[in-house]
Amino acid sequence: MTTYRIALIPGDGIGLPVVDAAWTVLERAGALHGFQLSATRFPWSCDFYRQTGAMMPADGIETLRGFDAILLGAVGWPAAVPDAVSLHGLLLPIRKAFRQYANIRPHRLLPGVEGPLRRQGFDILCIRENTEGEYSGAGGRVHVGTPDEVAVETAVFTRVGVERILRFGFEQARARRGKLASVTKSNAQKHTMVFWDEMTKAIAADYPDVEVTPYHIDAMAARMVMAPDTLDVVVASNLFGDILTDLGAAIQGGLGFAASANINPDRTAPSMFEPVHGSAPDIAHLGIANPIATIWSGAMMLEHLGEREAAAGVMRAVEAATASGIGTRPGQDRTDAIASTVLRALG
Ligand code: GGG
Q1: Is the CB of 92 under 6 A from ligand 1?
Q2: How many domains does the chain have?
């Protein structure tokens, strides 16, 4: 029997219960489809930082390298650790070190879920560049705390980085409905974003079957609200993709439904699967976190591992659960009740 070694990093706040809930569903899917998932749990989190002074050990990346995939919950506990420290100490180093350059985020309404828009029915796949751009970490501050203080944060767009994410987007569009929206702000950002637009145009020549449309980020934000059904694959830089996918989460009913996969398409290192949401300290101890985003992310993990039937089975079970109403009303259902309804639907 095939056994997949999965690194579990529940992280902080609601990351812990949603990963536990998702894991029970994924393990059951394995049992039903003839494979095993073997979990190794890592306590890397803001609590870990408080105890050790780091979000993960110095050899954390090397430890993770041997796994088939990583399932992560949420990172951040701002009352104890500044968000910029926790994010740059765990999530971002993993994405960068493992060349997880494609962050895939699906946005569609699950059965029984009502989004805030009148116009229903959309199926958008956002592809967020995941290793550079505005998240490069390049920059610094001088004259700190004085009237002459200067803070600089440099967005880094490399030819390799932009080309590979655009090609990934074109391939996804080709495998779906053949439409790619490429998002920039090239009227204002005349170096990096003009470069992105030029690369989009050049690469489009290799994909004559894909209809590509450039959008500015502001116009795309409006379109995702006014006409989301006109969109298929949306490709954007790291920060723009992050912002647009919170909007995507909103129109699909909330962050409790927004799944994501940090993919290393070359498979030279493990990929990482995580809900889009953060640690939600305000509801962390209430037992009402929605595990559906994490279960859906887990289904994406099974798909990436090649277990397509199991992944489809998990999604059918999620859809059966939401169709019955459970998990569709924010804060109304308990995490374990949602997970056990999905488990029952799985069989
Ligand atoms: N689910 C992982 C998590 O905690 N995400 C929250 C977050 O702020 N992530 C940063 C990012 O993806 O840019």
Answers
A1: no
A2: 2
